[in-house]
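Two folds, back to back.
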Amino acid sequence: MKRLVALLMAICMMAVLFTGCVSKGGNDEEVTLTWYIQKSVSNVSGQDKVMEEVNRYIKEKGLNVTLDLKVVDAGNYGQKISMMISSGEQFDICTINDATSYVKYARDGGFVELDDLLPKYGKAVLEKTDDYAQEAMKVDGKTYAIKNQGTYAIAQSFVFKKDLVEKYNFDYKSVTCLADLEPYLKTIKENEPNITPLFHEIPDKVDQNYAELASGMVFNNEADEFQSIFDTEYYVNTWKVINDYYKKGYIAKDAISKTDKASEKKSGKYAVMSNTGYYTEDGSKSSAQLGFPCVEAYTGTTPILNMTGVRTCISSTCKDPEKAMQLINLIWEDDYLSNTLAYGVEGINYTIDEERTAEIGSKSVVPTSGSEQTWALWHNFVGPLWDQWDSPWNTRTSLEMMQEVNLQAPRLKALGFVFDSDPVKTEYSKMSSIVGELKTALNIGCIDDVDSYIADGKKRLTDAGYDKVLEELNKQYKEWEKNNK
């Protein structure tokens, strides 16, 4: 009897131990997890060395996982993910770059629900994501994604070539809106024949009451509804200023043909440009991006309406969702792992800036660039952007300012709402192409008269079903609002 009792106790203890192992992430058999992510640089040829170090480190940290990273060209990425989900092809993890696709795939059963997995295996993720950002990941009350860190709002600024500002002793800090630029643009026009005074498609000072969600439709926070952008005084007034500047020769006459905006800005041919992704008081971010000394005038931070940018999802075809979540959590938890995924291997893909490291008291790296650069993943694709090591890509100062932008920006009432255009997809497709055409001309100013151009455009939009789309948008929003109070 004693032997029988001892045997039963031993069996019970083994069962407890086994249960404990399972609660920590299933069985401990090694699993290979396939992760699809968008390519950040075109010349990727050193992935084997990076993944060798990544997988060595994952094992060292006690997770029995091999990561098989599939890096896909940006132009093909969305289509690749769409095809895999629709066909039921097996993969484990992916990043999704836009809210509309995310909602569609979640509703189609493409992703694993994370509401149980995150509390169990995603402690570091939950500690480092903003509560309101994660809340906005819910689709029909359930969570299917981790919201990667990033700027949910956008700090905007006017960017000035520093040499011209100094040459004409212009008080750029006094500029708060497009209208304030007039005297400076006139000076440049009259005295600098090889410089275009103003870069085309430049936004005005931010009005935090408005944000555009669907094509040509803006949310009015005060009115608590979506409106046509072509009936919104703030946007119409901006287009009138731009149209005036175009007629005065401050904007290039052939601006509509200059589609490579990044290269144009880097050319040094423009006195005033815009920065619609970040702001640094000393102009250092724009200077690094454009390649010549700049100064900036802050024009406001946009409100937060929808969670744009990257999110990480576990596929419904995932071989082991628990281990997938453990892997994601380890990346969020361990800055060496996340930065190795992003920067690559020391001595091959980056070097340490010892002087800068000593200055700031934390790690600073110098990634290889140009033709020698064979590896890079943008940190916000990986997940924990704020754990990025200091580098020319993002200094610690610029990262802190991005975080501050998120804290300062107002959150609109419609935050988390995503429009499902399927009920009006025919009308939405027709009107979207017209909206794109109208906005391009209005943003550049290359038209005779703003009011008549908008009036003609609205007739075309009405014929295409614009009013029906706007009605459907507000109907869905009110239903969402009722269920999310």
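---
second:
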Amino acid sequence: YKLVFWNHCEYRKYLMRMSAADLFLDTISFNAGATANDALWCGVPLITIMGECYHSRMSGSLLASVQMEELIADNLSNYEELAIRLGCDKAYLKATKAKLMRNKNASKLFDTSTMVSELERTYKRILA
């Protein structure tokens, strides 16, 4: 296993690099937010701990929206166990990635046209 550090690059190249990752380890007190969203879009499993405030709950909300709650740890010990399992058990990692891809494709999180339509309908109801 290795950590790879990259220089700044354009967005498409960034997504290509992200897609090559096996696992995204979220920060604990301040979640990744948009970067977590990019990881899920690229099919990279994300492990997080759900915190008490908004900025420590973003990644958990993203995981819930793609029905991957099993990647939300409730404490640091479980976070570590999950990271080790995904890092060492290749079959589990492969199954987790496959489930993420299925769920991602069925989720409203990445269905922009439906999300925009629902938002427009909501705005129309508010203004009526």
